[in-house]
Specification:
The protein is an alpha/beta fold. The chain has a domain at 3-183 and 234-262 and 300-315: 3-Layer(aba) Sandwich (Rossmann fold), CATH 3.40.50.720. It contains eleven helices and 13 strands. It has helices at residues 12-23, 40-49, 63-72, 87-92, 94-114, 148-166, 200-208, 236-253, 269-280, 304-310, 318-331, and strands at 3-7, 27-32, 54-57, 77-80, 119-125, 171-177, 179-181, 215-218, 230-231, 233-235, 257-261, 267-268, 286-289. The strands form four sheets. The chain has a seven-stranded parallel sheet, sandwiched between helices. A two-stranded parallel ribbon has the order 7-10. It has a two-stranded parallel ribbon with strand order 8-13. The structure holds uridine-diphosphate-N-acetylglucosamine. The site of uridine-diphosphate-N-acetylglucosamine has 21 residues, from helix 6, helix 7 and strand 8. Uridine-diphosphate-N-acetylglucosamine (UD1) binds next to helix 6, helix 7 and strand 8.
């Protein structure tokens, strides 16, 4: 059985990928320092998986702790999620972002190297494409960063390219995520941001349960069909299954891969709000306010490469994303608290 170490395993994407890997027959060791997640996730994973999750509480910036984890478990591959992801915060705390996102990646790879593990799936982001030169973004689109968070992902990608060039035994998947939303269909795990949500869907779901009064729609005058921002939202379980497909690709083909994970469909803020209202039966009051500085008007993925090389495509539509986000938030109005 192949054993996979998941860093950032208690986070939103990590926890869903944990279930997807188990469902695909992998053995999982989760690692997290709970700096932006809750230990309650482990309880929910136990319930859903029917067994106690194998878990290590440690930071990816702690080399000794990582060594101990690799010594205790026979790890075959690593899926590296552990990172911070709030754009505004990254500008205020650049060193924390570089230490965790870049330092943590380097530390994880060094630990892997010390223990002879050279198969890695890396959480990158569509943010590495920067200002669109054309749309949809394909993997050949030029790269650039628009903020500190984006630079940590861009530098992370480059560090891994250098590593792969230094030693072709490394097999790496660079996964560029578009906008993950939704939750596991059980409604037992989902997205639980701390403080005021930065991202659209958790803000909408918190309005729906009455934790926030109304949604602020950032900009109504973009050059898009209804004037609001357009993104490529994908269901987090499709994204999780994309990791399984990427890992299988690395293990079966012995080759690295760089790929988008998105649907190929653009959806505007107001389209998402309407879909959510239908799925939840709750009205989402909103006000159109100024654009958020640094936001792009519109972007979406060209998902062809993932389909052709990984045999992966998204299966859950916008209605399912909304229904599952709602199931999670309505059953857990305060998240894991
Ligand atoms: C954001 C980050 C991106 C990061 C991703 C990770 C920015 C500029 N981009 O992506 O780098 O990889 O999160 O989670 O922060 N919106 C509202 N009201 C809200 C929140 C969002 O109208 O309260 C709009 C935004 O203007 C945008 C869309 O909803 O048009 C999606 O926003 P969001 O969920 O924050 O995702 P991104 O901006 O695409």
């Amino acid at each position: 059985m192949t054993t996979v170490l998941l860093t950032g395993a208690a986070g939103y994407i990590g926890s869903h990928t944990w279930l997807a890997l188990q469902a695909a027959g992998f053995s999982v060791v989760g690692l997290d320092d709970f700096s932006n997640s809750s230990p309650e996730v482990l309880e929910r994973l136990r319930e859903l998986g029917g067994r106690r999750p194998v878990f290590e509480r440690a930071s990816v910036t702690d080399a000794a702790a990582l060594d101990a984890v690799f010594a205790r478990h026979r790890i075959d591959a690593v899926v590296h999620f552990a990172a911070f992801k709030a754009v505004g915060e990254s500008a205020a705390q650049p060193l924390a972002y570089y230490a965790n996102n870049v330092g943590g990646l380097v530390g994880t790879c060094q630990a892997m190297q010390r223990h002879g593990v050279k198969t890695l799936v890396f959480s990158s982001s569509a943010t590495v494409y920067g200002e669109p030169k054309y749309l949809p973004y394909d993997e050949a689109h030029p790269l650039s960063a628009m903020n500190v968070y984006g630079r940590t992902k861009l530098f992370g990608e480059q560090i891994l390219r250098d590593l792969e060039a230094s030693d072709p035994a490394w097999k790496i998947a660079w996964l560029r995520y578009f906008n993950p939303v939704g939750a596991h269909e059980s409604g037992r795990i989902g997205e639980d941001p701390r403080g005021v949500p930065n991202n659209l869907m958790p803000y909408v779901t918190q309005v729906a349960v009455g934790r926030r009064e109304f949604l602020q729609v950032f900009g109504g005058d973009y050059d898009t069909p209804d004037g609001t921002g357009v993104r490529d939202y994908l269901h987090v379980m499709d994204l999780a299954e994309g990791h399984v497909a990427a890992l299988r690709y690395l293990l079966d083909h012995g080759a690295s891969i760089t790929t988008n994970l998105g649907t190929g469909q653009g959806t505007s803020v107001l389209q998402l709000v309407q879909a959510f209202e239908r799925a939840s039966g709750r009205p989402i009051p909103y006000r159109i306010v100024d654009r958020r500085p640094g936001d792009l008007p519109a972007f979406w993925a060209d998902p062809t490469l993932a389909r052709e090389r990984l045999g992966w495509r998204t299966r859950r539509d916008l209605d399912a994303m909304c229904a599952d986000s709602w199931r999670w938030q309505s059953a857990n109005p305060q998240g894991y608290a």
